Amino acid sequence: MKNNKIIIFCLVMFVVVSIAGTVQAQWTAEETKIERSIAVLEEMAIRKEEGRAFKQLLGMAEGIVVYPRLVNIGWGVGVMFGDGVVLRIDRNSNEWYGPAFIEVKTASVGLQAGIQEITLVLVLMDSEGVNVFKKTDFEIGADIRIAPGPLGDSLQASVSLNDSIYSYSYSEGIYAGFSLAGSVIHADSKANRNFYGGNITAEEILNTKKVNNEVALKMIQTINRINIKE
After folding, report:
1. Whose CA, among 75, 83, 114, 123, lies 20 to 30 Å from 170?
2. Per-residue pLDDT reduced to its tens digit, 158-171
């Protein structure tokens, strides 16, 4: 009798694992990127370094960019690369548009060595910040400046939010605060084509494509759950 219970339990677990594996396998590569971005936002929401300041900033934002994994490799010449997603919100209708898929590449020269993996979130505060991500290519520093995001339990009255983009980053759980100056942002045309079923620009996506994908809607729900609108 005991052996029969063990066999039945094993069969049930096998079915559960198989179903979970099937659901995971049905995700596209692009949906997997979105799911990883959701995990990043959930991590950011509980980090003490960013605190309520990040959540308050997100509540005022007009868009968000998430790079779940940037790889920074340095050995005399440094190279950084990775891909992510960008979403825009229409503050008049509170409707979200996207996601558009993007890539970043950076080359630098100097004293550097080793490999670093970085997670990066960019909070887009106005239309100028959003518009740069509608382009096919743009260089950070030349086209627009990105400032480190404010930290702490709340946005202090003394903090002047005059920048279009604020960045939050960490590496292996430690706040990194690195610079993206000189990085070139590219639209990931292949990923956008795969996700939307045809050739489409990042501008078209962020202007006209309301969020309707199941995984992307989950990301919006996460944003709405963690932000603070004051």
Report:
1. 75
2. 456 778 899 888 87
